[in-house]
Design brief:
Rossmann fold; 289 residues; alpha/beta; 7-stranded mixed β-sheet
């Protein structure tokens, strides 16, 4: 018997679906931006410490979301430097603009840019930053090739993706609590997703295939810190459209079941003072053009 043929995926339709999802997610990300910044600070600092930033440089942040990695870079490239803060979702850019104004960041331009075809001239920036964006693209190889194209000779990319699910319980446990009850579909294997570039060696290989040299990939530990399990759940609802849609569709009984499981899971990670610290790990990568 012939093997069943997998239906072809409409890549453009998938890109449009994902963009629509991020447009809708922007409000929740705005609510959670301070918490996301604190949780991601070790990764942001690793990226910036390895990016070779200098005053006067032109720095591009891709998939910037609330923009805080780029805003930290903007401080380091003064005087004379410019940050281009970009995201594919217009609503995310609005969140970033508000946060830039709150932080007094003035040496910044905002651009709506796609990762897989960056609408900038070849060799037009000194540094590319991208935290937790490339693994969410339909074609991450194309995204890295575009990053290489817009970098000047000798320029540098500093980026991060998520490490394997087993070391990121802060992210996986809420999804597991829903999936085991049949309330959430498992991600399609091989498609874009949080852990799509977590396979050991895969990120370094893709950077090299895109033309980068002197590639370094290192693990960077983080922690989700919450005052109560409801904060953990609220962050997941706000920052994941997939989880949020499933959660909003639940009746009260199902919600109580999921909350009870997360309450129990949080006890393992609770400090004596009641603070919940759930571990996680990224992969930081730096490479030269």
């Amino acid at each position: 018997m012939a093997e069943p043929v997998e239906p072809e995926v409409d890549l453009e339709a998938e890109r449009e679906r994902m963009l629509d999802s991020w447009e809708l997610a922007a409000t929740g990300w705005g609510r959670q931006a301070d918490g996301v910044r604190k949780r991601g600070l070790p990764v942001a600092e690793w990226m910036l410490d390895h990016a070779g930033l200098q005053p006067g440089q032109r720095v591009l942040e891709l998939a910037a979301g609330p923009g805080d990695v780029g805003f930290m870079a903007a401080q380091r490239i003064r005087p004379g430097g410019t940050l281009v803060s970009s995201d594919a979702a217009e609503a995310m850019l609005e969140v970033a603009k508000e946060r830039a104004a709150e932080q007094g960041i003035e040496n910044v331009e905002f651009r709506q840019l796609q990762l897989e075809w960056i609408d900038l001239e070849t060799a037009s920036v000194d540094v590319v930053l991208c935290r937790w964006g490339v693994m969410l693209t339909v074609d991450p190889g194309a995204a890295l090739q575009e990053c290489r194209r817009v970098l000047r000779p000798g320029g540098r990319i500093a980026m991060a993706v998520w490490d394997v699910p087993e070391v990121n319980p802060w992210a996986t446990m809420p999804f597991d609590a829903m999936a085991k009850r049949g309330l959430l579909e498992e991600p399609k294997p091989g498609g874009p997703g949080m852990f799509s570039l977590a396979t050991p060696g895969r990120l370094a290989e893709m950077l090299q295939e895109a033309g980068f040299v002197e590639v370094t990939v290192e693990p960077v530990s983080i922690a989700g810190v919450y005052e109560a399990p409801i904060e953990w759940l609220g962050e997941t609802v706000d920052c994941s459209q997939m989880f949020g849609r499933a959660w909003r569709a639940l009746d009260d009984e199902r919600r109580r079941e999921v909350r009870a499981e997360l309450d129990a899971a949080a006890r393992e990670f609770t400090d004596p003072d009641g603070t919940i610290r759930i571990p996680g790990r990224s992969l930081g990568a730096v490479a030269d053009a």
